[in-house]
């Protein structure tokens, strides 16, 4: 099949909307097969009712679902108050291919995350290659906690929690040139991580720009006046060449910026919350598009929506948009407003490009403290990222699940996906 152009996708959407009732789709799997009929081996853990993702090494045909936990780790986990049959197991959460062909694997390991390189043999078996490593900050402690990771040029970028209680969120790079986020509410405020993607923006860049890693998540908003917590969707990004600051932000991101991600759905009082993201890559990265699935943040989940976002337009918000800044109102209340004064140079959060190099800033270590202090306190953009077309590309009625979200995607684009899920009594592999 030839690559789908944005125009082709748009016309496919138009046809779907013409065939649907009021633009809302009721979709189901094209084919569902019970595992008994295909002689598929069953994997199930009692008390675990849903597997949101199964980690697949497609080139080897391997589905990695199990990594044994040592009895001593299980006992320690149980002594800390966790359930031995569910929480104190080793759930695989990171499966990334390294540059040398090995696989980097991380598991929850009974609330003591660990990672290791594994080598695939000719008979399809994965074997440990070297000693286990500490998985803190790379993999969640809690098997039910949302997380994300991506491997870029031998470095692991991860978004997860950094402690046993799950109270210290972190976005970090490890394995080479380690850096991480500040532990501040203005950076991450009770986040739920969704997806990470690497975009090679240095390719064909006329100004010597750097590659980016984009992170999608939701969090409690700091910028809205509300007596109750309001959840908003975010997209954040960091620069691949970021190694932290010299004095300020030592071994911390100097390029971490975030913006609100909007997907306005009619008759919705509160913002919808991002649940999953897919990057449709184009030969020219500027034409690549993120497709994100959103669901309501209150009440029964009666529908889901898919919004599309231009990679280039997201980058433009971070490169040229205004910032928000906190100001104190009355005695203690903090309100976030648009920052209207002149920005320090180089621009806070910007990647190192040719313009910066001509002024002697060749690495993030060379950035002046004034620039670093600004981004340390004000990483939030004032402008939100708006979807292509101003609203959802499609809306689906009915209970939502990863399978149903990407069923709509398959019907729209004609591209197949496969989803495996396990419930309390039934196990299915669904070809969408």
From TrEMBL:
User: What keywords are annotated for this sequence in UniProt?
Assistant: Glycoprotein, Signal
- Gene Ontology cellular component? extracellular space; plasma membrane
Extent of the signal sequence: 1-24
What residue stretches are annotated with the Sema domain? 1-432
Q: Which InterPro entries match?
A: Semap_dom, Semap_dom_sf, Semaphorin, WD40/YVTN_repeat-like_dom_sf
Pfam families the record matches: Sema
Name the source's superkingdom.
Answer: Eukaryota
Gene Ontology molecular function: chemorepellent activity; semaphorin receptor binding
Q: Which GO terms describe its biological process?
A: axon guidance; negative regulation of transcription by RNA polymerase II; neural crest cell migration; ossification involved in bone maturation; positive regulation of cell migration; semaphorin-plexin signaling pathway
Question: By what name is this protein known?
Answer: Sema domain-containing protein
């Amino acid at each position: 099949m030839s690559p789908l152009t944005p125009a082709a996708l748009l016309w496919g959407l138009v046809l779907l909307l013409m065939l649907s009732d009021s633009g809302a789709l009721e979709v189901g799997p094209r084919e569902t097969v019970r595992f008994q009929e295909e002689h598929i081996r069953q994997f199930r853990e009692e008390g675990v009712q849903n597997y949101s993702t199964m980690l697949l090494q497609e080139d080897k045909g391997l589905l990695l679902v199990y990594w044994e936990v040592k009895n001593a780790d299980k006992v320690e986990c149980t002594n800390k108050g966790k359930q031995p049959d569910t929480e104190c197991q080793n759930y695989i959460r990171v499966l990334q291919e390294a540059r040398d062909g090995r696989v980097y694997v991380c598991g929850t390991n009974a609330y003591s995350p660990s990672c290791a390189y594994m080598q695939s043999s000719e008979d399809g078996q994965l074997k440990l290659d070297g000693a286990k490593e500490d998985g803190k900050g790379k993999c969640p402690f809690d098997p039910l906690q949302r997380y994300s990771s991506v491997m870029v040029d031998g470095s692991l970028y991860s978004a997860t929690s950094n402690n046993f209680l799950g109270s210290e969120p972190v976005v970090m790079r490890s394995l080479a040139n380690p850096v991480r986020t500040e532990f501040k509410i203005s950076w991450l405020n009770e986040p739920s991580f969704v997806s990470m993607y690497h975009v090679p923006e240095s390719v064909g860049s006329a100004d010597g720009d750097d590659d980016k890693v984009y992170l999608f998540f939701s969090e409690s908003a700091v910028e809205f006046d509300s007596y109750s917590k309001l959840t908003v969707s975010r997209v954040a990004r960091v620069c691949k060449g970021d190694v932290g600051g010299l004095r300020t932000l030592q071994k911390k991101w100097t390029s971490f910026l975030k913006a609100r991600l909007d997907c306005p759905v009619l008759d919705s009082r509160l913002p919808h919350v991002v649940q999953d993201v897919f990057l449709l890559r184009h030969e020219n990265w500027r034409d690549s598009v993120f497709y994100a699935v959103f669901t309501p943040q209150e009440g029964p989940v009666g529908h889901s929506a898919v919004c599309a976002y231009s990679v280039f337009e997201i980058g433009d918000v971070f490169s040229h948009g205004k910032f928000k800044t906190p100001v104190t109102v009355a005695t203690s209340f903090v309100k976030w407003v648009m920052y209207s004064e002149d920005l320090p140079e180089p621009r806070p959060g910007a990647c190192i490009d040719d313009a910066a190099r001509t002024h002697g800033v060749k690495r993030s270590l060379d950035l002046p403290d004034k620039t670093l202090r600004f981004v340390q306190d004000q990483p939030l953009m004032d402008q939100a990222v708006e979807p292509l077309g101003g609203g959802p590309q499609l809306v689906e009625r009915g209970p939502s699940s990863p399978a149903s979200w990407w069923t709509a995607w398959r019907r729209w684009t004609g591209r197949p996906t496969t989803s495996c899920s396990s419930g309390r009594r039934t196990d299915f592999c669904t070809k969408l």
